[in-house]
């Protein structure tokens, strides 16, 4: 049976957000999920209870980047916006048209992860203990890095990771934001964008090894 990825998430502190900001928050979440659904093939998602959501990703090597984009998009909209994300990697029994009605190991792992989240905002649970052991500490470091990003850093990082060309990304972002290439590079460096790139590559190389 195939393995898939399920991301279960909820917005942090959504009940404390004022009405106008809450609308912006939900709009940002919706448009970001639309973007990843169009950018990465066969991705499906569902938003429920207003501030909770699930994303189904058949191509498991897309999952980490999608998770990072969700958090970066929210944090770039407002410094108080962020989400808790639990990635579950495993088999699935039933993949219905409605995401939240689907069932299987990946859904259980993802749901269990979100229920256990306490001192982290990002976690990965898998059906492979060796893979789990390898990536758990790395994920804690990356979660801490994401949590500490400023709004400006998040905005620039989001633009970088959605850029069609990473080689020209610094110049393109600088042009779109009306600033210099040097300034964009400085912001990216302070946000530890190379660390995030290495993290994505490390996780994906491990996925190739174990899956």
What count of structural domains?
Answer: 1
Tertiary shape:
globular
Q: What structural category arises from helix and sheet content?
A: alpha+beta
The percent range for strand residues is: 15-25%
Tell me which CATH architecture applies here. 2-Layer Sandwich
CATH superfamily: Nucleotide cyclase, GGDEF domain
Ranges where pLDDT stays below 50 over 5 or more residues in a row are none
Q: How do the helices and strands follow one another from N- to C-terminus?
A: EHEEHEHEHHHHH
Please tally the helical runs, counting DSSP H or I stretches of 4 or more residues: 8
| Mean pLDDT over all positions | 92
Q: Major sheet: order of its strands?
A: 2-3-1-4-5
CATH-defined fold name: Alpha-Beta Plaits
The CATH class is Alpha Beta
What value does the Rg take, in angstroms? 17 Å
Largest sheet properties: 5 strands, mixed
Distance between the termini: 12 Å
Helix content: 40-55%
Number of strands: 5
Produce a short descriptive summary.
This protein is of the alpha+beta class. The protein has helices at 19-39, 63-77, 105-116, 129-148, 151-161, 169-177, 181-190, 193-210, and strands spanning 3-11, 44-48, 52-57, 83-91, 122-126. Helix 3 (105-116) links the parallel strand 4 and strand 5.
């Amino acid at each position: 049976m195939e393995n898939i990825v399920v991301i279960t998430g909820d917005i942090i502190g959504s009940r404390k957000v004022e009405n106008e900001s809450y609308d912006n928050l939900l709009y940002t979440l919706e448009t970001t999920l639309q973007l990843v659904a169009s950018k990465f093939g066969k991705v499906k998602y569902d938003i429920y209870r207003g501030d909770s959501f699930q994303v189904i990703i058949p191509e498991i090597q897309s999952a980490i980047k999608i998770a990072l984009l969700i958090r970066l998009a929210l944090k770039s909209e407002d410094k108080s916006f962020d989400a808790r994300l639990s990635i579950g990697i495993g088999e699935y029994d039933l993949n219905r048209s409605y995401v939240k009605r689907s069932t299987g190991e990946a859904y259980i792992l993802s749901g269990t992860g979100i229920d256990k989240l306490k001192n982290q905002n990002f976690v990965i649970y898998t059906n492979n203990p060796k893979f789990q052991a390898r990536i758990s500490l790395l994920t804690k470091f990356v979660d801490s890095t994401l949590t500490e990003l400023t709004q400006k850093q998040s905005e620039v990082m989001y633009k970088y990771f959605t850029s069609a060309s990473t080689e020209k990304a610094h110049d393109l972002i600088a042009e779109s934001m009306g600033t210099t290439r040097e300034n964009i590079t400085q912001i990216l460096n302070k946000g530890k964008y190379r660390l995030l790139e290495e993290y994505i590559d490390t996780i994906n190389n491990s996925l190739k090894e174990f899956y």
